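Holo model, magnesium ion. Inputs:
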Amino acid sequence: MSINLVELVSVCLELAEQSGDIIRNIYRSGSLDVKYKGVDDPVTIADITVQKHIVAGLRCYWPELRIIGEEELQIGETPTVLPSLKRLASYDAIEVPLSELIVFIDPLDATREFTLGNVQCVMTLIGISRRGSPIAGVIHQPFVDVAGDACENAEQWVGRSVYGIVGIPVVGVRDRRQPEDRDKIILATTASHYNEQVDRAVQLIKPDKVIRAGGAGFKALMVIERLADVYVFPTVGMKYWDICAPHAILSACGGHLTNPAGNNIDYSDQKIENKDGVKIKDINDAKTMKRR
Ligand SMILES: Nc1ncnc2c1ncn2[C@@H]1O[C@H](COP(=O)(O)O)[C@@H](O)[C@H]1OP(=O)(O)O
Ligand SMILES: [Mg+2]
Ligand SMILES: [Mg+2]
Ligand SMILES: [Mg+2]
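Output:
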């Protein structure tokens, strides 16, 4: 059976935007119902509700689609409104065999920061892989204003979406680099899972500036929008759902994501933890490094 990838991305985009509404509403309610899956590994009612919503929306159209989501769900739900297949109707259809696809869902990336009220880095990530390679991704960032910038005023939170299909220009990104940073090497890495391995990588790269922030999607987006040249996380803890969507969008922009040894990440692997960590390089990284 074949599936039109453009329709799948349309549905993912709409479901991700609806997820932004769900996340904001739960945040405003103040009842996050935080539980711990492990040390430093929280989950909230928003993570669970959003994943149920996305899985249910995808299942309406493609009951056979293989889906790997971060959270363990007891039962699915039926969405009250069917997401549209036609959001991206201006693109030509891209037919692919459904059996070759896996959809990776991170309903809420940067849960820890979400529980602490540091909401700018929160994102819903939906990545699509085909035969092990990321081919499309949708990211939705709920807590930003209409310009896509972080803002304190909760009244102005409208959210923004970024999406891309490899081979087609990415939608929703811009070059955000500050002029004074043009000649610097800027490295983004974890705020809350910093350890010796991460520190060693930072020392080796010797960046001019280190940004420590929460969320895999948030830091990958920094590379995509040129706020950082490289994102390193050479340690355990990151899973395929954290990086599939950012990886696809980065690839669509000409960037690269590998494990720290420089090898490809295979999304068809049955094991879902990416044990070696990840390293994301910006398209202009090689040029920047050569100047040193
Ligand atoms: N040790 C870990 N345990 C659980 N999740 C992790 C761990 N390390 C990274 N992650 C996931 O990767 C994201 C990026 O890590 P960091 O914020 O440290 O840079 C986290 O927000 C978390 O995703 P999630 O919030 O979806 O559980
Ligand atoms: Mg989590
Ligand atoms: Mg995550
Ligand atoms: Mg998550």
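DSSP finds seven helices and 14 strands in the chain. The longest strand covers residues 101-109.
Archived with the compound record.
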